[in-house]
Amino acid sequence: MVFVTTLLATFPEVVQAAAPVRLTENGTMKFVTAFAGDGSDVLFVEFVKPTLFQIMRLKLDDRSVEPLHGNQADHELDIAVSPDGKYYAFVQCHSTLHGAIEIRDVSQKSIGHVPAGPGFAVYRSLAFAPDNSRLLFTFPENVHRQIFSVSLKGDDRNQLTDTNGINNWPCFSPDGKQIVFASTRDGHYDIYKMQADGTDACRLTSSPTMDLRPQFSPSGLRISFTSNRDGNYEIYVMDSDGGNVQQVTSHPERDDYSVWHPDGKQLLMVSERNGYHDLYLVDAPP
Prior knowledge:
CATH topology: Neuraminidase
Mean pLDDT: 92
Number of domains: 1
Order of helices and strands: HEEEEEEEEEEEEEEEEEEEEEEEE
Low-confidence stretches: 1-8
Helix content: under 10%
């Protein structure tokens, strides 16, 4: 009976929903995604050519796409937008593996900067606190990737995790009291939750494969994440305590990088179809 219960938790029932809506058409590699403000625009990282990763802006009303920062030659490897849409942050690389965090307001005026870290590694996985008091990021401090926070000026750095393995993809709860993230501290990539100060970490999933990129819903009641527990990368949703796991997508190609629409009714994701990668919107489980 224990084996059957564990098996059902690992392979939940697929939620039947309307077919995902395709938002982009060029099929190039796409990565980190974020809604801007009220959800009328989407920002995402695109592999625009073999020598350049660039942040793009998609306007949902007419599906037009353009570079956020115009023509520039530096790699942009990550993007995060504050919940109120007033600020955004991104990682800018001035060489292949040497990147700084730039923090700007909606007019693109610089308000903060985190200088590039030591060695050949870059900051990743940016996330704003709901009240704009802190910015989360990850960095391989002393070998293991850990989670840190800074003020929006880029100072007052605090380390929130200090474990073996990799800690990555942090996301604040809407009330700012908790952070959900993925970690390999217990051997596999699983989803964990901790207090905003880094204390009281608890494990939410226990999969023999990889559970990645968790995101709190706008209500804070649910968490979306990517998992390959069925042998392929799909989007899943669970309650914020780790229960009631539901599989949202089921396709032989990859679905990844999910983020919640501000209304909490849909998920934005990067999906591979026939070898091409585009942005799609899919209904979230009711």
